[in-house]
Amino acid sequence: MKFFSANKLEIITFIVRIILGGVLLASGILKAKDPAESANAAAAYKILPTNIAHLFGYGLPWLEIAIAFLLILGISVRLAAFLGGFIMLVFVAAIASVWSRGILIDCGCFGGGGVIDPSKATEAYRSYFLAILRDLALALGGLYLYFFPHGILSFDKKSITNA
Amino acid sequence: MAKSSKSSKSSGDKFTRWLVIGMVALVVITGGGFSLLNQNNKNSEALIELNDFKVGAPIPASIDIINGSAIALNTGATKVIDIWVDPQCPACKVFEDANGGYIDNLIRTNKASVRFHILSFLGDESVRAANATFCAADEKHFLDFHKALYLVQSPVKNSGFWSNETLLDIGSAVGIKSKSFQDCVTKGSKLDLVKANYGSMEKFGIKGTPTVFINGKLWERKSSDFNLAEFSAAVEQG
User: Fold this and answer.
1) Which residues span the domain enclosing B35?
2) Assign residue A111 a region: left if phi > 0, alpha if psi is -120 to 50, beta otherwise?
3) DSSP assignment of B4-73
4) CA of B51 to nearest chain A CA: how many angstroms apart?
5) Same domain membership, residue B81 and residue B35
6) Which residue has the higher pLDDT, A2 or A35?
7) How far is CA B104 from CA B113, B143, B213, in A?
8) Phi and psi torsions of B92, nearest 5°
9) What was the ipTM of the complex prediction?
10) In the prediction, which pLDDT does B8 show?
11) Residues B132 and B187 in one domain
12) Cβ of residue A97 closer than 8 Å to a chain B Cβ
């Protein structure tokens, strides 16, 4: 019975790893394909000074891709889950900040980004709400992996990650 | 993270953890650094390509204060075109790439009066470039400078590329080497005109760029690439 339930957890861990890792991989690759766009998208949030926001925009896709690889391959899942969950919370905070200041942008979550036309305000606010929900759910996934990092098809040895 | 494990395991854990953090940092720094350097290279290469720029004949420009302090060229023709652009707007580059030569020709062959409204709502670098554009108009090289700006426009806005030095380099590539231009660019002598252009957007109902009026009538384009066939047909019709 114990073995059976542990096995189920391992499968759930694997699924959560693939979901969080898959989303990060997709968003990372889409951003990395157009670095200039990613730099502009980061600056459009008007949180960091422009030149630092550009650096963030250049580096972020690679951070997402790196975390995605760790999660999908199952390497240092606990650490990767922490990093992945943490950046999701950063995204939530950034979108909430933009929303509260009434700035109208495309979040650039999966490439794209930048200021959008005021006539599309309603859709923008709706997309902020959905993006926050999505990122919170993914952060919860990260939290789950932090506590249950061991799953099937993983490079991690049970003794190392199940601390 | 590994507080509950035994000490030997914990030191192995720590090593793995730092190794992975190091690898992640390496990927981020290499990837991000490559993207940044690549963009900077593209910017410098674009500047170097300006060396082949064919400078046109000087053409006088005036400021049309009544019409939003726009830069007016070849005033007095029956056909009047108003063009509203921001130096950093990517769509304006598409418009310029497609129709710049045609518009140039309209002005030089006396077929139309064209008023350029140089906006600056995309940040500091738009303000700086707009100021330099008004300076270039004073030097009778508006058309060349305007074209050259869009040739080297960086896809990253406010990246620091359009410094005063770069703007002076662009000027010198299109044959503007005078002391007055240097002073005008570095001192921001035309900032009041930059402000006046920006400030007139509301009065003329400008919501985005590029916006074009042909004889006072808004050009409602059907294509997204601002193609020359459509634009020139609209101009001919007037």
Assistant:
1) 1-52
2) left
3) TS-HHHHHHHHHHHHHHHHHHHHHHHHHHHHHHHHHHHHHHHHHHHGGG--PPPP--EEEETTTTTEEEE
4) 25
5) no
6) A35
7) 11, 7, 16
8) -65, -35
9) 0.89
10) 58
11) yes
12) no
Of the residues A37, A50, A161, the best mutation for testing chain B's interface (the one with the most B CB atoms within 10 Å of its CB) is A50
Mean pLDDT, rounded, for A50-70:
98
Across the interface, whether the CB atoms of A58 and B32 are under 8 A apart is answered yes
Question: CB distance A50–B158 less than 8 Å?
Answer: yes
**pLDDT tens-digit map of A146-160:** 999 988 888 887 644
Are residue B2 and residue B42 in the same domain, yes or no? yes
Task: Taking the CA atoms of B80, B81, B84 and B85 in sequence, report the sign of the dihedral they define.
Answer: negative
Contacts of residues B8-14 at CB distance under 8 Å and 24 or more positions apart, as own/partner, are B9/A159, B9/A160, B9/A163, B10/A163, B12/A160, B13/A160, B13/A163
Same structural domain, B132 and B210: yes
Q: pTM, whole model, 2 decimals?
A: 0.89
- Last-in-domain residue among B52, B71, B91: B52
- B90: contact with A, CB 8 A cutoff: no
Residues B73 and B179 in one domain: yes
Say which amino acid occupies B109: T
Min Cα–Cα distance to chain A from B126, Å: 14
Q: Token digits for A53?
A: 């926001």
**Residue A150 forms contact with B (CB below 8 Å):** no
Query: Do B69 and B45 share a structural domain?
Result: no
- Judge if B45 and B82 occupy the same domain: no
Query: pLDDT, tens digit, for every residue of A67-115?
Result: 999 999 999 999 999 999 999 999 999 999 999 999 999 999 999 999 9
Distances (CA, A) of B105 to A157, B37, B56, B60: 71, 37, 11, 15
Please report, to the nearest 10 degrees, the dihedral formed by the alpha carbons of residues A112, A113, A116, A122 taken in order: 100
The number of residues making up chain A comes to 163
B47 shares a domain with B62:
no
Q: B226-235 b/e with 16+ CB inside 10 Å = b?
A: bbeebbeebb
Check B158 against A79: CB less than 8 A apart.
no
Q: How many domains does chain B have?
A: 2
Per-domain residue ranges for chain A? 2-151
How far away is chain B from the Cα of A56, in angstroms, using its nearest Cα?
A: 8
- Contact between residue B156 and residue A54 where contact means Cβ atoms under 8 Å apart: yes
